[in-house]
Amino acid sequence: MLSDAENKELFDAIATAKKECKDSYALSYLHAMHEAGILYGPQGVKTQILYALSNMATWRGEIARTTKKTLKTLLKKL
């Protein structure tokens, strides 16, 4: 389970990825994350993050590295 601070960090990382990442498949998983969380709980969010990260492989740069690292770190805590 994530703390309030970790939840904020997760939402911030998702918002950054939505804004900066141009991969349409990654974006579709990021946009579906809220609904997956409602329907399936933390496991649904975890799955969406995994799929989004998989599709972010070509996203490069410092923002990309930081955002993907944050998502991977928080993924382990879900």
Give the helices and strands as they follow along the chain: HHHH
The secondary-structure class comes to mainly alpha
The coarse overall form would be globular
Q: What's the Cα radius of gyration?
A: 11 Å
Number of strands: 0
Poorly predicted residue ranges = none
Mean pLDDT, as a whole number?
97
Helix content: over 70%
Description:
There is one protein chain. This protein has helices at residues 4-20, 24-40, 42-55, 62-77. With 78 residues, it is an all-alpha fold. α1 (4-20) runs antiparallel to α4 (62-77). The model has no long low-confidence stretch (mean pLDDT 97).
Helix and strand topology:
Blueprint (H helix, E strand, L loop, with lengths): L3 H17 L3 H17 L1 H14 L6 H16 L1
Short recap of the structure:
The chain is an all-alpha fold. The protein has helices spanning 4-20, 24-40, 42-55, 62-77.
What key phrases describe this protein's structure?
globular, 78 residues, mainly alpha
